[in-house]
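Quarterly update from the structural biology core.
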Amino acid sequence: MFSDWPSELVPQQGWGDEAAISAFKDAIPWTVGRDFVAGTAKHLAGSLGLTKPGPPTKSKIIHDKQLQVLMPALGHGLSFPLSEIDILRDCVNVYCEWLSALLPNPKSSVPSPILNDPNHYARIIINHFYYLFVPRGAQGPDVINRQAVLCHRVLRTLQNIAQNSPYLSEDTWQTLLMFLLHINSALLSPPTVKEDAGEQLCERVLSVLFETWLLACARCFPPPPLWNALRESCQRWRHRAGLIEQWNRINFALTRKLICFMYGSSFPEISISEDDLNIIPTNMSKDCIAQVWYRILHIIGNPVDLSRHTVISKTPAFLKYAISSALVIEPSQHPCLQMLPSIFLTAMKGISGLVDAFLGVPNTSLDNLNQKGRQISPSSVSLSSESKDNAARLLANGRPKCNSILHLFGPWLFEAALINCNLQASPGSQHKSDAGGGASSGARRPVSGFGGEVAKKTTDAPASGDHSERLTNLMPQHFQGGRAEALGALCRIFCSKKTGEEILPVYLARFYIALHQGLRESDTAILSPHESSQPPTQRYSTKAGMCSETAASVLVNGVDLFRLDLQGVVSLVPSVLGVLECVLPEGELSTPLQLPVTLLRRAATHILLSILPLPLHFQGLQVKEIGNNSGERLALSHLRPQLVNLLTNALQVETDPSNTQMLLGGLLFCVQDAALCEVMDSISQHNFSTDRDHNIMSSGASDTVSSHGDYNSLLDEACEVLPEGGLGQMSATSFPSSSTTTTTHATMLTTTDGEATPILEDSDSAHALFVRSIYLVCHRLISSWKSDVNVSLAGLELLSGLARLSIAEQDGLECKRAVKWLCDYIASQCYRPPRAHSKDLHSTIVAAFHCASVWLVAHPYLLQDKECLATVLEVVELGISGSKSQVKSSDAPRLKHEKELKPASMRVRDAAEALLSCVLSQVGTFPSVCGAESLSSLLDEMTLLRHCNTWGGSDQLTRDSAAQHFRYFVAQNSIMLALLEQPLGNHQDPQPTVTALIRGPFGRVAWTMQLRHLPRHKSSAKLYTVNPGRPLPMNDVGIKHNVKPKYFPDSVERIPLCKADKSVPSLESVIMNEEKSTLEHEKLLQILDHQVIAFEENVQRQVERETSEYPDVETECVAPSLCHEFQTARLLLSHFGFLSLDALQESVESAVPSLVALDSSMAGFARDLEILDNTNNRTVDTAHVFYVQAGQTAPLDILSNVVSCSSVHPHFMEFLNGLGWTVNVHQHPGWTGHVSTAFSVTPQSQEGTIDSNHGGSGFSGKTHVLYWSDALSEMAFVVPAPSQGLTACHPSSSGNINTVGLVLDSYDKAVSGGGGGGSGSERSDSLPPCDADVEGSSSISSHASQTSYGQGSENRSRKFGRQTSAVACSDHKVYIVWLESFDDCYTFPALELLPETVTGLESSSWKDKEAMVYIIFIHALTNGLFRIRLQGQNAKLNMAGPLVDGQVVSRRVLGTLVRQTALNMCRRRRLESDSYQPPHVRRKLRIQEMVQKYRYEMNEPEFYTHLFTSPLC
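Predicted structure, tokenized:
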């Protein structure tokens, strides 16, 4: 900058008013001069008031001529040896007091000539002070300390004058600055030696120099010659560590001011000490700050020269030392140069800190430069597991572009990163290093100054005695710390690239070369011929268990290298992969100082996850190795087996929980990606049969088929052979024969052994990865992961993801082993000692039961195996009862009543019951005839009643009226029976028929049962003749005698009446007396007449029958008429054994009998019945999807993006379709994302259509949503749009988050109205809104403990139970956010969008609590891959997988992995919640609540009588 200006730094011999002082010394002898100076100084010092009490006396010096005599004497006294310390002290005191003439209030002892012209005499005094600082040679430490005390006094005085004097002229400022330059040169230019005054005063004189220089810049800007003098001087002091420390200190202070006015107050500030805050004058202008900042930054020249001791030692002072030394040595071998590596590292840390400051890294400070782990990347704070949620911005949004920072610091950083690197490309595969020896004759010179001659001299130098140990013997390895710091700063600069930002190709090329060199094995290692012939990925592998500083710095600071759209970054994959093989598979790893092994392995894991999708994504891509001129290229597809082995080997040795979870996420991605790739390749194989060299980059990644390339065409191409004894290594006999009929690219690396090709091909196939993953994860779960809850959950989530994979070559034996290992894991966890049992342990058991359910549902054939079925049922028994009936096969089984019921916890028991229900009802039957949307029957009371023969269809049917036709019973206090005794209309066979709606904890089913004496297939066959005929009558029946019987003799009429007979009055007399008797008599006569007529007719028919011919129609035997009235409910209950006296009585174990009748006529029964039906038997979750264009932060703008497909990414709609399938909320019986439209089917008139040009708004929930479900879970994906059209259903437009009350009011009205007429069929397995039933909630709470399974004793032994509330744990939100610009993830308005995500399941106090939001950010890279970022509140259970923060995934698995991650987030949240209850427990509590409210209070006779009455009576 100032090379054209002459330096004002004159030789030291001509400085300090030497002419006047020399004249004084020559005029008188030394002794006389010494006495004169001593007396003069003592006299003048005595009048200052410093040594004697009292005020100072006024000076008697009144003429300039007096000063012309005295001042040379005092100046001469300052040059006295340190033995005359008293004279030196007096001279210093006098001059310091006289300099107060420049202050507003000068001392009274100052002579009047000085007061009249203070600047003139101040310049003389400042010149004289130079002699005090001149080194006196080798002195003892005590003497040097005395000199240092006087020097400090002078420096304080000068600094005070510079700060507070209003009279300093321009000449005085320049003299002061020149004085400071000269004393620093006198003290710091010579080589550092022990007990040197320069070493003791170094920090002080430098700080005064720079602080005074900054003051001068604000008041009297130094001219260019002075700046040139400062630059030249500093370059001669670079062997002093204090110079670099002060340089960093001033740079940080200036940079803080510079950033403040360049980027505003919102930009993160540099943290500096309180003392440094006042270094920069407040009156310094912005332009001046910028000028001074740039000049100070370059004041030491090129900082990389600090790594070249030959350059640093090229100064007159070093040459003088070499000449005067006892041993003639080179200046570059001075012992003080041994500090250059540390000084170089300090300088690189300072530059690195400045880079962080411009990037906006928080908490950048000078103090952090020397802290432990300085090389940790600020852009990868997520590497630290203790960081809270990573929610804080890592880099400032308004940071400068990468090119701007590289223009400023790039030359230094690139040069420092390439120290001792031979940049000439090696021919062929021969890689040579120039370290430790000279370059060849035709090679370019090394970047560093370590030439061959220097190294030779250093090697050949004689080592004699102790002196040889002090000579410097610097090697390139000594500067690896500074080189690593430079590489780390470069990585952070390039990793700060914003979306769409362009970086100059020249910078990218230099950066890749620097990384390539930094990742090499060693800076001094020369490859042997054997190593040179190895594949490229092995040539870069370092010694096992060792990692160089440069490689470690690249890994830790470059975790985002493959997550950005850096052009050509794939060329670094072979180099990076070699270092990863050194770091990840090693159990005992040696890392550079101040870098934790866990952190290094975490960084390596991040990079591994970012390059995992590259081989399958760029299958046909061939990359040229950096530094190779042979034209040999490497196919990325050849790296996949190596990546897979690296991943599995890392999992075997990893001990850190966070790193293990990341590796598990990468493993599941590999398996799923391989499986989907094989499926898509098999579909599109015929499209690529004529083009085997298809390149994905030429066709673009927008096409789904072409983006996957031709995977099968690469199967024959050779890669490295898998390590022997690898986990899950497959035999050659298990490979399909079709894999051998493939072609080979001529330009790719090939092998000479054709027999190994099938093994390599199948080692990374989906089936091979599937088997290896199962073996590895199950083994580690049982052996070492079972004590860590987060790792266990991650492993179980991976196994659940593997269970859902559809692999053509899937072996049932492997699936059986997986289930067997899961059961063993559950058993081992349950059998752990009691002190080991905790909530976390039980969470892992619950998750393992869920994982087993997923496996059995996905592979129902496993239950056909008796051994597998027995294993599953044994572990179910263990979970429910706490022990197995038969521990060993040789033991006699214990019966149920012989065991004590002591489960590990109620959560474990609930999970075991859920698995048992899944085995009995879902395995092999899911999805049911109702579809995956429903596990329960869609039939309810109203639907069944409409199909009955007795219903005419004219009356308005409601839930209340329909319930009156059913009998309701509750069995075992957990199963509700709704029995309909009326036959359905489609049943013409008059058999005893009953229709039962069975509501249990796991759903609702409808059955129609008939009482048959024969099977249905036999009852239709007639086993008798239709008309067998009648036998002929027998006419010879004998003689018939007609005899008329007589009841009284004939003489009875002739017997006279006696008085007794006449005592009874006659009937006529009685009738005539009373009118009432007359009327009764007439009625009696009428009855008698009718009876006489009927009797006569009967007699007549009898006579006719007796006289008629056989056969008689009336007396003929005919079949009785069929019975149409049955008490089928009584028959059903009786046949199932519920009507015994014991079942109707209360027992000791339970206060509720085994069978209880419910009164359906009571008010509120139909409403509670609907609430029970709306309590889902599966977990329900909702994820809301948002699309954010670049720079958007307003919620309305974000919601408006999905209105049109033209405003979203081309792959966004494809991603949405990968989350689930489209359902109409009005015709969908499952969860829809909001309680107002969920679990109900409405008439066709309300069905809506989706606009074909929508960008996702069609799934807003107004008419359609995206839905996914399995046998255990339901999930809806909603894409909120600005105009919902559902004001009542989605009251979020009002801006009030707590809208649950409004939703519940409308919900209660719909329930109380019975839902009549409008609903054709009502789904009754939905999740109830929280607080929907205020009365019921208290009932549930009060009866939960005493009605749980009817076991009072087990409640006392329950250690880790849930809170007895029916909270569904829905106060968390899951966002899926598609980002066009990745930096927008830091400004995403998550809380402002909460009103758009109300589902109706939130609790009433949700508004008062801090919202828990989990966010999955998706950023589409230009290469067709997708970068993932996870954000959520830090909880005890870490973020769920399989996606990992920072992971890069392919397009084919994006939707699946995002859905699984969102589902696992919700599941982990439920596991963590203390108040969560599984769906079947909530349903059971609802049934128990209805028993308490609507139970008939009847004894046994009354109950039996109730059975014989009609429900409508």
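The chain is about 45% helix and 5% strand.
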